[in-house]
């Protein structure tokens, strides 16, 4: 499929892409988003497949990694759009990156009827970097599902996806979930961290699947939800600081589970 | 000491504060920075003591937590400046926060001659949120020192300090450190994580003090430095993702050490 050049900022497709790049509301409404940079585009090709569109800047055309991606897009009959660098830069938030974007559809998944597989539940997590780091750690730890309450940052924004480093394509992510309702239909333990809890995370058996519950950066998990957790555990501290960043906390939890599983089921 | 109102944006002290708020270069040059919000100001009073100046917005004067901070500043003979809200807002990056700032001196510490206490070494870590999360986790894990290479984000920027949540005041932070040189003078093991390493972090004895080495978000630890580490370990993964965010990785390492120490030296 021939590469299609666009050179005018008044081109209707370009204007549509620019709106998606700038507006979180447009991304939600259209059910589409942009993947920024070589790594995310490679991950998408590997884990999902054909993008709606590949968009590349003129200078980036000379890059070897980009050439490989363009060949793969061509194999999949995905259209590639070529932009002058200045038009490309208006679509990208990555400075000094390699100028390639994918336009993709954000998956619209039907929520499963109950919690039965290893999962993360996010109650109003605000920061895109935290959200991205949590899904990245979750995917690395072999967790399969992410459930987000209303009020959690949008899972498919460019910032979240950059921080997620491709984890989005390995997990099933459900948004606008009524977590209280979901917690009534769970077949597995639900574990929340709380600095007020007595039980140490190291003393909880994590060799079986669990659902992890994390909350808002300032306020933590809402009280009503915290009561629905089957276990409240603390990450013990040795220093005089009250709590960890939510993404750091999540990483400690997920990899304590990995450690226990590897010890319990040696390879 | 009476509270001093400033109402003009042309006031020379206000102009000086505004420069510090806006310019990382000015903060480095002056050796001064601003702490933003109730939590950081409270931590500073508790861990360090008297600020150079307390700055408060008119509306925030009615807040109880602010009133407590102002009383403490008065006890310590620290000057408080009162600003109309619109002047205060031009100094602060926190939206919807409580309008209080401290002006403080950034500690200028003489670098210790060798590595002999538990420490974190940061090689060109770029992201303020990552840096802040790492020092927060380090302080919670009882680590005492942080050594930063040239090219690491400035430790005392408002963004880093917000993410650090007061950890800055519990740790000795050394900037512009020649890490290769420091690694030649170490009395303790130096541990770096690497996805190419064979040894699992869970199999390394971490009951004694170690220095942890973490690197640039994209490039990792520079090869020359990685070779100087006494141990290279991997955080084993169960999922199909290559690596963790550097702050997530640091949290897993620090709290694996906490776990081992708590197991080895039960309370």
Automatic annotation (TrEMBL), chains A, B:
For molecular function, the Gene Ontology terms on record are: RNA binding; RNA methyltransferase activity
Give the matching Gene3D superfamilies. 3.30.1330.30, 3.40.1280.10
Picking any one GO biological process from the record gives:
methylation
Alphabetic keyword roster: Methyltransferase, Transferase
Tell me where in this chain the tRNA/rRNA methyltransferase SpoU type domain is found. 119-254
Keyword Transferase: yes or no?
yes
Entry protein name: RNA methyltransferase
């Amino acid at each position: 499929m021939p590469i299609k050049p666009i050179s005018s900022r008044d081109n209707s497709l370009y204007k549509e892409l620019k709106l998606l790049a700038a507006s979180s509301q447009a991304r939600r409404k259209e059910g589409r988003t942009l993947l920024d940079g070589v790594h995310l585009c490679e991950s998408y090709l590997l884990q999902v497949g054909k993008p709606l569109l590949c968009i590349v800047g003129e200078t980036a055309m000379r890059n070897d990694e980009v050439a490989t991606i363009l060949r793969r897009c061509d194999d999949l009959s995905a259209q590639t759009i070529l932009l002058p660098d200045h038009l490309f830069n208006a679509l990208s938030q990555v400075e000094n990156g390699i100028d390639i974007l994918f336009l993709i559809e954000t998956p619209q998944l039907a929520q499963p009827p109950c919690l039965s597989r290893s999962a993360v539940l996010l109650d109003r997590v605000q920061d895109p970097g935290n959200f991205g780091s949590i899904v990245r750690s979750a995917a690395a730890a072999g967790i399969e599902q992410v459930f987000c309450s209303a009020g959690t940052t949008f899972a498919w924004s460019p910032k979240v996806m950059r921080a997620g480093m491709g984890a989005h394509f390995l997990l099933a992510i459900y948004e606008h979930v009524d977590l209280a309702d979901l917690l009534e239909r769970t077949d597995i333990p639900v574990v929340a961290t709380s600095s007020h809890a007595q039980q140490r995370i190291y003393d909880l058996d994590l060799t079986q699947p669990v659902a992890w519950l994390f909350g808002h950066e300032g306020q933590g998990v809402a009280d009503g939800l915290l009561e629905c957790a089957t276990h409240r555990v603390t990450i013990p501290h040795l220093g005089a600081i009250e709590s960890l960043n939510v993404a750091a906390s999540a990483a400690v939890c997920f990899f304590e589970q990995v450690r226990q599983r590897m010890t319990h089921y040696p390879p």
